[in-house]
User: What shape does this take?
Amino acid sequence: MMSEEDGPTLREYVEVRFNLMQETLAKQARRHDEILSERDARYQQRFEATKEFVAQWFSSAEKAITKAEMATEKRFEGVNEFRAQLDSQQRTFMPRAEVQVMETAALNRVAQLEKQIDTLLAERKGLVGGWGYAVGLVGFLLTLLSVGVLVYSAVK
Assistant: This one.
């Protein structure tokens, strides 16, 4: 047998080692629990920060979408006004066929008036020429009459 001076028994040694291992494992488990708690707190903070960031981002995105919709609406109002103006303009313009008929009628009328003016000018030239002949004839007759009077006076 062994004496106490020789040291602890195997059973005592194993129990002490087992107790030390249990204490070490318990300390490590507590440390792991602390680390997990820290990480959980950190992850929760990150989650909250991300949640807040996403909420702000969605809010700003919603504002941007609203502004873009308003700008688009304004632009479409301008386009609609322009379309209405073009539609109104189109309704007030004459159709091409109607303009062509009016143009043809106006050209025919101008041609007719030109013919009438040419006829009137020809008649006027004829009258002017006729007056010339009439004045010439009257002058000739007066000359004959004068010569006749002179000859009559000379004969008498």
Summary: The chain has a mean pLDDT of 87.
